[in-house]
Amino acid sequence: MREKFSALLAGAATLALSALFFPASAQTSGAGTDTVLPRPEAPFKGKIGETYKDSTPDFPRQVHAPEGAPNVLVILLDDVGFGHAGTLGGAVKTATMDRLARDGIVFNQFHTTALCSPTRAALLTGRNHHSVGTGVIIEMGTGYPGYTGIVPPSAAGLPEVLRLNGYATAAFGKWHNTPANEISPAGPFDRWPTGRTWGFENFYGFMNGETSQFYPVLYQNTSPVAQPKQPDQGYHFTEDMTDQAIGWLNRINATNPQKPWFLYYSTGAIHAPHHVPKEYREKYRGKFDAGWDKYREETFARQKQLGVIPENAKLTPRPDEIPAWDDQSADAKRIYERLMENYSGFLEHTDVQVGRLIDTVRAAGELDNTLIFFIVGDNGASAEGGLEGTVNEIASINGIQLGLEGLKEKFDEIGGPETEPHVPVGWAWAADAPFKWTKQVASHFGGTRNGLIVHWPKGMKSKDGLRTQFHHVIDIAPTILEAAGIPEPTIVNGVEQKPIEGVSMKYAFDDEAAPSHRTVQYFEMLGNRGIYKDGWMATTRHGRLPWETAGAQGNFDSDKWELYNLNDDFTQANDLAQQFPDKVEALKSAFMEEARKYNVLPLDDRMSERFDVTLRPNPLAHLNSVEYGAGVTGINEAAFLNTHGVPFKITANVEANDSDAEGVIAAIGGITSGWSLYVADGKPVFTYNFFDVEKYSVQASEALPAGAATIEVDVVPTEAGAGKPADVTLRMNGQHVGEGRVERTVPFAYGVEGFDVGMDTVSPVDSDEYQSPFAFTGMIKGVTVERQPESVLERAIK
User: Fold this and answer.
1) Among 309, 301, 380, 315, which residue's Cα sits nearest to residue 574?
2) What region holds the Sulfatase N-terminal domain (predicted)?
3) If you average pLDDT over residues 532-553, what whole number do you get?
4) Check whether domain 73-588 has CATH 3.50.50.60, yes or no
């Protein structure tokens, strides 16, 4: 009886202790051998007697990474063309890249998807971007499997796989892989960086596709946080995210130095807005006076001298759609040079910050066993600033090109906090030397070919080497798993996994002559298409130019296909389509085979049309009115009622302690664009900011009285359509106290700063009148935002 009781007690205690104190993922003894994650519980191997004196303890085994598994650092820059960084022949000083390349290897036939969040999704899952629902940026998702913007649980992120195999994981910088309407306090949080889909244990950065480097919209894990200091105190986001990454590394090393880590360092640089400290802008003064045509020639010569392109490579010609430098006016040249100086300083500044992070790894004695992937761009350089460039890139996204006039007015401020600049198309094309086209154009290497530096002294013998194997961003994840000795999982968190579609690149680390293990790769973005197979590539650039935000054609059958033999033609310079029509047809068929396999269909060439929030699920879709209470801040625009091109009304119930109350009652957006209802000099004011080019204000004729008051603002377009003028009426306690007109309204999106009640966080909508947060000094009982019936618009038009 005594023995039977002891056995029952032992079993019950084991189960109770395991279930109560230790999650399943922490109860394994082995590591790197199982493909089901988390691994099942390890049995209790101790002995339980009646008392501790006749018992033997045995703690549940925590997961440990395989012996000798390297740390992993993935560095991803944004919107960097192949021909911009000095390491790859460009004019920008990139000392950190240079050092890593000298002690590592460079891949010169590495490819991305031609756009940001698709590249990131492919990188972090090891699957093609359409396979994981990210065939286009997440703000443009549609209800088809390849385009939802929702990464499925069947494609668990690399950081989750590494975490469940004993790694510490963290992400810093730009995210851009959470559906926009889920970036809200209500979540869901599964697809946030720290959610189960991705598996990062720590995140610090911004969630959207871009943000101001001086006034970023920041999150720590899933909570909004304020930037630690202001631009006039020397703040810049790339420096901030580097400080945070260094701090995290130091904490991990101080508390568990044996634990390997995976750090994803994904800068917002050098994506627009091109923001950089002034001293870096000045470094490049006069360096680009010869213009973009000459710059490409000079870059091409340097690339051959460095050996990063083959000797027989040809410089591709300027497309007819891009103007010649010599045809620009003197004024235009002066402005374009300044934009490129600023853009180039931004890249050097970023490289310096990466250097600080690398120095931290070196100082900790961990550089030799840290596998570093330095991906020099998530796509080619961006042409989204238009033919003239812009002082406000959010305006460009909205289809409004402010052009030279806007740039002239703010010439001396270009690159500072008061501007959101973007280079013109010509410089983007030049930065992609020696290839054709730019970001968005997945058919040509100007959109998809980016430099890759790999550095891992302990794991490879090669130094200062060049690798010419054809690879794609989906190949990074399986390379990391092979290097760490971790098998590809079949089940993660109870969900059967899609097979990883990438192939490991590790075979090429010490064998420069090895044939490429990737023999087929499709490319597709916004209707631009390409297919690589066994050294040949067929491509077609479809319809809309990459600096145009609208103009979907819908007709794909009439697209002209080109053909290139990449074994002899590094730059896609020699079109062989007419010589080998049968080869073109065979490759077109191969593209369709891949397209069906990886959810590329249906092809869709819409751009701005897909920003329409009604195309995606939205919890507010059935509502015409939402009341917001005090303390609501940072509500992403995708999770807010639409106030573009529709009549809307703001009703604020407030209570002022005295007649000196001031501050913001409600606002959306910031210095880039938006609207704000606030009290200044005792009177309510409604201001509409049109891309910081024009501000339209209506001030009440009477002061806000002490005590309870109701303030109403009606904004009614004067005609149907996006971006049309609107009439504004201001009432207080039911009495008409002001009116005015907004001559130009924002068509689609105010930018990345959200909706706030009681203050204007991040940056001010009306920087001429107040500085953020300008909190309201009275009490806010509620703010209601209401979409007015269409009849209101119809009456206004009549």
Assistant:
1) 315
2) 70-486
3) 92
4) no
